[in-house]
Amino acid sequence: MAELKAKYMGIPLETPIVVAACSISNMIDRIKLAEEAGAGALVIRSLFEEQIQFDAQNMEDALSVGSESFAEAITYYPSIEHGGADEHLMWIEKTRAEVRMPLIASLNAVSLGGWTKYARQLEATGVNGLELNVYAVAADPRRNAADIETELYEIVKAVKAEVSIPLAVKLSPFYTSVANVASELDRIGVPALVLFNRFLQPDIDPTTESLVTEMVLSQPEEMKLPLRWTGLLYGRVDADLAITTGVHSGPDVAKAILAGATAVQVASALIEYGIAYISTMLRQLEGWMDERGYQNLAEFRGKLSHKEVLDPFGFERSQYVDLLRKQK
Ligand SMILES: Cc1cc2nc3c(=O)[nH]c(=O)nc-3n(C[C@H](O)[C@H](O)[C@H](O)COP(=O)(O)O)c2cc1C
Question: Which of 7, 178, 300, 312 has the most C-beta neighbours closer than 10 Å?
Fold first, then answer.
């Protein structure tokens, strides 16, 4: 029988399937269901910088300031409009006391500020790790790439200095050089990178001539972006790599590990098919491994990464040129 254990950001996991930060962590019963179904760990929904900076009375003002991440947070969780940081911390403490699997707290931020001290408070709840999501749309034309990246590194260093638990950074795919940003974070000593933030793109309703921000779950097709970057980064950074976005089945988990991932983070598929679907995904992964005689995940991790594959150009431009030329 295939062995599914993994070690992600220094945390031993029973299986490589991590529940991504999402609404599943809103209820203890759902978290317990994920544990029973075989989740290796769970990321608790984010504590937002705006939640920390503004107390409950000032939430309205926070909304009118209107950072992209917080507008999206409200789409995810209408209730956080009235919930502050302290309630969030209490919720994590309660969850920690009731489940055994590793729990990872999440901080969602847009800028450097006093809120970073909350990283220490999150650690004090007993979580095993912390995920930092620097989720901002770089819309200010006066700020260049170097400014934006430098701020990211400063935020990461400030948060890292607050905690002794391992830190993962959930990255945007929109840096000019994702590989350079990943290796800088590696140099700073970040033990895990999560690829990628899934930006919810606003739509326009032409009938009402208004903006529409709605929660649309991912499609398996969307996994190709983090899959490529995992393949490109594997073996070039020391940090563990986790794929989030579009992981919808056991074979998808196998693909992630073949590219070089240590773990996957899943939200949409569990919301769509139910939390118990984790056990189906694990059975599919085991079946896939048994068919090929793989005894553990390390035996095939990175087998199809850019570094290991015979045709590494498949990850780069030449494949694209080839494909376009073949089109009739
Ligand atoms: C309902 C919902 C709530 C989410 N909340 C958060 C959050 O609080 N913090 C965060 O970093 N990502 C959040 N996400 C993003 C997920 O963690 C995940 O990265 C993304 O959905 C892509 O994975 P998927 O394709 O499996 O859905 C949320 C996603 C969903 C669907």
Answer: 178
Helices (H), the chain: 28-37, 49-53, 59-65, 68-76, 85-98, 118-124, 145-162, 178-188, 224-233, 250-259, 268-273, 277-292, 317-326
What's residue 58's pLDDT? 56
CATH code for the part of the protein at 6-326 = 3.20.20.70
Q: How far is the CA of 246 from the centre of ligand 1 (A)?
A: 11
Phi, psi of 177 (to 5 degrees): -125, 95
- Mean pLDDT for each consecutive 10-residue tract of the chain (328 residues)? 95 98 96 98 93 60 50 52 80 96 95 86 97 90 95 96 97 95 98 95 94 92 97 97 98 98 98 98 98 98 91 68 67
Neighbours of 197 (CB within 10 A): 19
Residue of 18, 22, 50, 134 with the most ligand 1 atoms within 8 Å of its CB, for mutation:
22
Q: Closest ligand 1 atom to the C-alpha of 43?
A: 17
CA pair distance 244, 276, nearest whole angstrom: 19
Could you count the other beta carbons within 10 Å of the beta carbon of residue 55? 12
| Angle (CA) 155 161 162, round 5° | 95
DSSP state of 320: H
Domain assignments of the chain as residue spans, ordered by start:
6-326
Strand pairing category for 240-244 and 263-266: parallel
Helix 178-188 and helix 145-162, axial crossing angle in degrees, nearest 10 = 30
Q: Are 20 and 43 in contact (CB under 8 A)?
A: yes
Q: What is the pLDDT at residue 22?
A: 96
DSSP string, 56-109: GGGHHHHHHH--HHHHHHHHH-GGGGG--HHHHHHHHHHHHHH--S-EEEEEEE
Q: Cα-Cα-Cα-Cα dihedral of 87, 89, 95, 101, to 10°?
A: 150
Ligand 1 midpoint to CA 206 (Å): 27
Residue 66: predicted pLDDT: 45
The model's pTM is 0.91
